[in-house]
Amino acid sequence: MPTAIASTVEAVRLDDSLVIRPGARRYQLFGAQFCVALRKVVLGDDMGLGKTFQALLVIGHEMAHGGTHAMVVCPASLIDNWCREAAKTIKVEVARFHGDDRDEAWDTWRRNGGLLVTSYELATRVDPTSLVDLAVVIVDEAHLIKNPEAKRTIATAALIDRSRVAVLMTGTPLENRVEEFVSLVSHVQPELARSLSSMISDESRSAGFIQAVAGVYLRRNQSDVLAELPELIWADEVFALDADPAYREAITAGSLMGARRVASVGSGANSPKMERLVDLADECRESGQKLLVFSYFRETLTTAVGVLGQPSAEIHGDVPVAQRQVLCDAFTAAEGFASLVLQIEAGGLGLNLQAASVVVIVEPQLKPSTEVQAVARAHRMGQTRRVTAYRFVADDTIEERLTELVAAKRATFDAFVRNSALKAASAASTDGGVDPEPAGLDVDPPIDEQALLEAEQRRLAG
Question: Whole-model pTM?
Answer without folding.
Answer: 0.67
